[in-house]
Amino acid sequence: MVVLRLFRRLEERIFNVQQKTAEGVQTARDAVLRGGIIVMTAVVVIWISVFLYAAFYYAYMPNISHVRPVHLKFESCIDEKGICSFPSAHVQLTKKQHLLMVGQPYKVNLHLEMPESPTNRELGMFMVCAQLRDRDGVLVENACRSAMLHYRSSLLHILTTLTFSPMMILGSAEEKQNIVLEMFANFEEDQSHPVTDVYVQIQSRFVELYSATVMINAHLSGLRYIMFHWPILSAILGISTNLFFIALICVLSYLHFIAEDEILDDDFIFEKGEEEVDEEEDDDYKDEKSNTDRNFIFFLFTWKCKAKLPIDHRVN
User: Fold this and answer.
1) pTM, full prediction
2) With contact defined as beta carbons under 8 Å apart, do 115 and 176 qualify?
3) N or C terminus: fewer CB in 10 A for the chain?
4) Are 252 and 260 in contact (CB under 8 A)?
């Protein structure tokens, strides 16, 4: 008997240990599962925040600069040296429908790389005109600007040449000037006539040029200025804002689902309680009906006995 009791106690302890171990393992699994769900949710929310900020940045921020080379064309003279027409060029900005962002101001500059030759120094001022046209050739905007080489005296020219002569000999420096002409200071794209082509004409037959370039720069202001000049700070603020609102939506949705589950459970318990009450009322009604039928049968039986009438055995 003592041995059986010891075996029973040992079995009970082993069973309790196994049960506690199983409960601990299940609890650990639940904790790991919940932790994994929380980590995955956090990662997804963070990636969604980053994606939303990147999409907003791509859609809201324009391209800061567009650079196109200008290939000037002219008619050569037959009987004399030089050119017999104004140098002009057609610059195609894009083959698509839109290049510039609607509502964003732009600065359109023309860069002229001119040598400090005697011809250019004696040329003086000359005019440069530019036209902006859409795909169908409709004129959107035009402007003309005057230009000339920056003046330098003979003494300054000699000193500059002597100073930079080693670099000039090695080919790392040249006697040239880069003239920047602001053709359009505050140009905004017209949605009905998007600019796709630029026409440039230099109204002088004696100008000498190394190269020319059209540069379109976006004039940023407000939020776009902050996002461009402080990208890291803007990214941190934007992603944090998206993260806050997405996390808030997730928490409110979770609380809403929990509240709906509790309401459904309460409704189920309430309906179940009503059904039990209805069953009890039905049982009471059946008991009352059976008691009434018995009293009625007993009354008939007594009345027939007193009246000495034959008892109807069919009445139960």
Assistant:
1) 0.66
2) yes
3) N
4) no
- What does the buried/exposed string (b/e) look like for 287-303 if buried means 16 or more CB atoms within 10 Å of the residue's CB? eeeeeeeeeeeeeeeee
CB 120 within 8 A of CB 207: yes
Assess whether pLDDT exceeds 80 at residue 96.
Answer: no
For residue 311, what pLDDT is reported?
45
Angle at 81 between CA 76 and CA 82, to 5 degrees: 55
**CA 33, 39, 44 angle in degrees (round to 5)?**
125
Contacts of 227 (CB under 8 A, 6+ apart): 57, 60, 61, 234
Q: Of 175, 240, 183, nearest to 210 (Cα)?
A: 175
Q: What pLDDT is stored for residue 6 in this prediction?
A: 66
Amino acid in the structure at residue 62: P
Q: How far apart are CA 1 and CA 181, in angstroms?
A: 113
Instruction: Dump the DSSP string for 22-55.
Output: HHHHHHHHHHHHHHHHHHHHHHHHHHHHHHHHHH
Tokens for 5, please give them.
């009791």
- Euclidean distance between CA atoms 201 and 178, whole angstroms: 18
* CA pair distance 236, 243, nearest whole angstrom: 10
Task: Check: CB of residue 114 under 8 Å from CB of residue 211.
Answer: no
* CB count in 10 Å sphere of residue 254: 11
Q: How far apart are CA 198 and CA 137, in angstroms?
A: 10
Residues 122-127, mean pLDDT to the nearest whole number = 90
Helices (H) and strands (E) in the chain, counts: 6, 8
Q: Are 104 and 218 in contact (CB under 8 A)?
A: yes
Q: How many CB atoms lie within 10 A of CB 169?
A: 9
